[in-house]
Amino acid sequence: MTQHESTTTVLRKNKKVLIASLTGSAIEWFDYFLYGTAAALVFNKIFFPMVDPVIGLILSYLSFSLTFFIRPIGGVIFAHIGDRIGRKKTLVLTLSLMGGATVMIGLLPTYEMIGMWAPALLILMRIIQGMGIGGEWGGALLLAYEYAPEKRKGFFGSIPQAGVTIGMLMATFIVSLMTLFSEEDFLSWGWRIPFLLSSVLVLIGLWIRKDIDETPDFKKVKKSGQVAKAPLRETLKHHWREVLIAAGLKVVETAPFYIFSTFVVSYATTTLTFQKSQALEAVTLGALVATIMIPLMGLLSDKIGRQRMYAVSVFILGLFIVPWFMLLNTGTTWGIVTATVIAFGVLWAPVTAVLGTLCSEIFSANVRYTGITLGYQLGAALAGGTAPLIATGLLAKYDGDWVPVAWYLAVTVVISLIAIFCASRVKRGPAILAQPNEL
């Protein structure tokens, strides 16, 4: 296969697979950031107005945080289905649930219209969203990974990872457009538009997935009669080490993400003297750079090896922690932009680009959906949403000193370096039906 065939031709042959994988991931993160914004600006006023404004805001945020508890449940359920009946059917189900619930939120009547049924229905839709989202990531990743040519698994596996930053950029763009409405129009009907527009993405995703066949790896599993009868039990019994490794690999991908994209906004505007617009613009620019870098780094990993890329990227990310804070503390626009673009756009991108492929390669094909989902959800729960909370708590305890936060980030780096060291020693057994991928 020539170089031209290995890029242009391969992309053309697998265009639908890659678009289907990316669409689901982008919808997931678009929903995540959009709901968080709406929870802060709208839901406390139109779904929880029956209580004190502060309590209403807290209840609104609690409805947002529900997915952190629901996603692991949805992940286990749909991973079981994915390892039992196949990736394609599961992905159609998860996208339908996730997208349908998102659109329904945009159609919900307010508290003024139906009273307590309004917040009850909002919470129900959020639960359904969480269930679908929990199973979407693993399926979207495996759709790309298990269709990938042997020498392009890093690139294909990076495509759904780019959905994180694409979803963030889409949500940022839509929210910025919503600010053009008057407050009255925004609260009355303007906030509904982004939720209803997500139906377009869902329909595109379902249309594309309709014409995609089951993944080659799962076909081999079925043909050989090795479909796991109880994927969760088999994973926990025979692959618990791999689950812990996958969770460890996730730690340094998820904690710095929330620090570089979320915590930085509050740190820059409260502890430092930046305007909120400066911080948000820096994060948006970082997300744009990361969106371009992720597939490029996935492509590069196919040439230099994923484990090597991950280890080197994590090490450099660790070295940049102190310079990141020093640049922020210059109090200048160029300082916060440079810090965010380098940390978020350049150094975080290769870590997330290879994460999904690394996790996929350490599990047997017959329990791969369950294995990567358990590892991902465990790592996200331990180091994801808690990262800004921990960092903010450390700042408060040490009177705004950033050094303890830097040590916290350094710990995540060490955990993931240990995980990649362990991953290099994982010996895949005979249950893996695909040809081993050279790292």
TrEMBL record:
It is a multi-pass membrane protein. The keyword Transport applies. Signal peptide: none annotated. It is found in: Cell membrane. Residues 17-428 form the Major facilitator superfamily (MFS) profile domain. Keywords: Cell membrane, Membrane, Transmembrane, Transmembrane helix, Transport. Pfam families: MFS_1. One of its GO terms (cellular component) is plasma membrane. InterPro entries: MFS (IPR011701), MFS_dom (IPR020846), Sugar_transporter_CS (IPR005829). The chain crosses the membrane at residues 29-48, 54-79, 91-111, 117-143, 155-177, 189-208, 243-267, 279-300, 309-328, 334-359, 371-396, 402-423. GO terms for molecular function: transmembrane transporter activity. Its main location: membrane. This is MFS transporter. The lineage of its organism: Bacteria, Pseudomonadati, Pseudomonadota, Gammaproteobacteria, Enterobacterales.
